Fold these 2 entries.
Entry 1:
Amino acid sequence: MSHAGLIEDYGLIGDLQTAALVSRHGCIDWLCFPRFDSAACFAALLGTAEHGHWTIRPAGPFSSPGRRYRGDSLVLETELETDGGAVRLVDFMPPRGQAPDVVRIVEGVRGRVEMTMDLAIRFDYGRTIPWVRRVDGVRLAVAGPDALRIDTPVELEGRDFHTLARFTVGAGDRVPFVVTWFPSHERVPDPVDVEAALRDTEGFWTDWAGTCTHAGRWHDAVHRSLITLKALTYAPTGGIVAAATTSLPEALGGVRNWDYRYCWLRDATLTLLSFLRAGYVEEARAWRDWFLRAIAGGPRDLGIMYGLAGERRLPELELDWLPGYEGSRPVRIGNGAHGQRQLDVYGEIGDALYQARLAGIEPSEDAWRMNSLLLDFLEHGWREPDQGIWEVRGPRRHFTHSKVMAWVAFDRAARAVERFGRDGPADRWRALREEIHREVCREGWHAERGSFVQYYGGDRLDASLLLIPLVGFLPAADERVVGTVAAIRRELLRDGLVERYRADEENVAVDGLPPGEGTFLPCSFWLAEVLALQGRTAEATDLFERLLGLRNDLGLLSEEYDVARGRLVGNFPQAFTHLALVDAAYTLAEGRATRC
């Protein structure tokens, strides 16, 4: 029987190296140690309770009337009530020291509540049951390379490969539980000072959030999204993962289940821009350093995604022992798209480096030299077909969005020479920029439809075309943009939200996958931005606020939304969605595209 709750029922805690998902009922159903992309030790999210979870809850019937993050932090508080009293469950992960920890504190709020704890450790994505024993008075769980230290003042017992406890909490009591991961061949780490860790964790996040320069409308939503993006940053290298999970389905029961625990160049560069707009320059510097390490090599070999430390080989595997979230199979780890050609990333990189310079980041000769080498390849490479922004698994095509972003790459390079005095063949780059512009307006335009189309020679629409005015390729008021927006609203809206494209039977030839998926939430944020740029402020605001209403009670969003079921779907929380929220908030407030 499935153990997982609704995707929107989860909150995120993390330590800037990995993250856990906590349900509103006190269950940690997903956690990978020691990195975001490590094997999970709690994988009930993608299976059953026997695939690993950590549950702390009242022993009898209870309700969960509310939960919240403590201020501008990643300390999660969940209220649990029974007829006899109430407790508050405080969950957090201290910013990483030597070893990763999950700390859980049960606070007595009123009355007396009998509580239970069920710790089912299952290493290797639910497949391996560890050997749990006491060593020098410390309870340890060990299997192969992984080990956990388990600390609590509560008496524990082992039964049927679960570690269990039963205890009572009165008003004012504070009962801590700590799980600490370490390599099984190394010495056992020291115990955690729980109260000091709580103060340090809250202080870290409060201090970080306090440097945000955003002070406009929708500040709380922007703030929470920025905190979420920071939580998806792998601090040791500066890499930014696309999401904390793998294989949460884009359509319930379907096969569009992908591993997003890696660093997509596109997502990472766009996250960088969101950070820069809010005044977070250190994150920009860290990303630039990560980027230069990751892409070192030949320009033709530029990947679309990398591992947290810049790893290039991310082989895709299927875990056949996991039944998947609500029966959505296969469950995948790794991502076969890592070997794809996606030309738009060249534009994203060039734009990110240019915008970083505009924001006052000091110039980097290494970054400029690398960007120039990428442009040397792109001078010819932009003419090639690719798999496009949506990583289709069908044949390569000349996707319109990819060509637009090739235009961005040359546009930003020419502007860097003009504005910052960079050394480079600006005349040649300007000529290429104009050549691409002419070709896109000729080959990507469908006169009968009165709109741009997904790929040259086709007649299908694609929401990525909404980016044309947002990156400055054409003004939002241009009649071709107006026609494209009208066509997208006419054909790609489902209950007012935007599909990436029609994932129907005809589309199988394009993306190589069966029909069906939710509405991709960043696309709706793009539409709100374009409407704002066209002066349709009321429509833009209505759409933006509707999207804000899809967030869960903690302000978190996944990749997609199932309009028929009224549920979040896809990996969670999704960086692309949260950065699109931040960008849209700025565009609506300022009345201009922040990337032009």
Note: The two ends are 51 Å apart (CA to CA).
Entry 2:
Amino acid sequence: MLNSLFRYIWKRSAETKGYWLTRYVFLRLMGLMYLFAYLTLVFQGIPLLGENGLLPATNYLNAVGSNFNSKTDAFIAMPTVFWFSFSDTMFTVLAWIGAILSVLVLVGYANSIILFILWFLYLSFDHIGQTWYSFGWEMQLLETGFLAIFIAPLLDMRPFPKTPPPIPLIWLLRWLTFRLNMGTGLIKLRGDPCWEDLTCLLYHYETQPMPNPLSAYWHFMPQWFHKLGILWSHFTFLVAPWFIFGPRKIRHIAGILLVLIQVMLFVNGNYSFLNLLAIIATIGVFDDTLLKKILPKFITKKAEIASEKAKLSGSQLVISWILMILVAFLSVPVILNLIGPNQYMNTSYNQIHFVNTYGAFGSVGKIRTELIIQGTDELFINENTVWKEYEFKGKPGNVYRKLPQVAPYHMRLDWLIWFAAFSNYEQHPWMVNLVWKFLHNDEDTLSLIDYNPFPNKPPNYIRVEHYLYNFAPLDDPTGAVWKRKRIGSWLPPLSKNNQNLRDFIQSNNWGRYE
């Protein structure tokens, strides 16, 4: 009986029809996903991680490297190409290589070699990313990208190559989709009581890290709407994932529900590329019978022709089965984490971030506070000092400024300032370095923000103020988006001549200015 079962599974995994369009859509979306990820590195990497960045990667590599006897040992423990060389030029070149290869995959040309380069380069950046890359979707991108390496053919770059997509990899995408959604659903039930009493959405749209243009509209919806939304969320994340392993029609319905909730999340907030990544994994739930009804005829026709001429690659099928066995082994701690009483969210169990545990918004803030950075060019500070505010590209600041739509692009500095508002500068020392760079009008750092109130000459003093923010009514006659109230000082006024500040910058090996 076991022999018959194995033969049936092997036969199903050796099918040459059914998932050509699935692979086509999955890889195109992976190209789009990688493009956003690498463009973030191109435009934000040097100010954040460069040789003079807010958290220089060289400092981090030196600190971590001191724990190993050789660079080879360090590489095995934390794989990154930057162990062997690091410079701003190298960083930028590799980021652009990633962006260019992403475009190549996006337009339809992908194979295992290209996808391996994209995956390994991003792993290299992630391992030196420090707090800027502490988000769960980084490991999610790496896990999805690792699976993509084996879904694509080894050498053939054509959109519809001669070898069919390996079916075991489609199953692994579904297993990833299951873990993503179940982790998100369970962490809500175990995290914040407001998910149980159906009140979380009364606050969430206002207090989320980076609201978008529609967030205020969602916030002011009636209470019954918010409670219904939470019930729908619980059903989608906790019930629907079980059906993605079922018969075709039921599986497709479950997949559509999982995609729809990610679309809804996308339109009510800026969650970086979290939603796009979840949708990409869910593509593995669908097969060609559904996708051919959605995609243009000229694409579906090519898939049909390729399917008729398909030649199964035995070596690729064997490798895909080996990968399945590896995933089964690596899934043991993930399953124990999901069913255990103390669930961890967004945790990796190995250095290549493969087969992780996920989750999102296990707790929801009930109030929104913002850190507002202000400067003055006056020589002396008193109660009449005029302070001018720096404006960021994504985070709230000016109460009249319209909220932007930036996702799936990721404003890393804006997100981390949102986290910093929950604590103090001792827990986020890079904020002090940010002030230091503003005091010198550092060109790279200023590229991360939207408005510098001192374009011609750096300010003499900078301070960081703490404010309480609430959405203004939708029909506010002043046109304001926010109402705000000062809580107090988060960081007192500092000048570049402040000896404590200079000592702090020097002790962290951050300063290059006199």
Note: The beta strands are 368-376, 388-389, 391-392, 449-451, 461-471, 482-494.
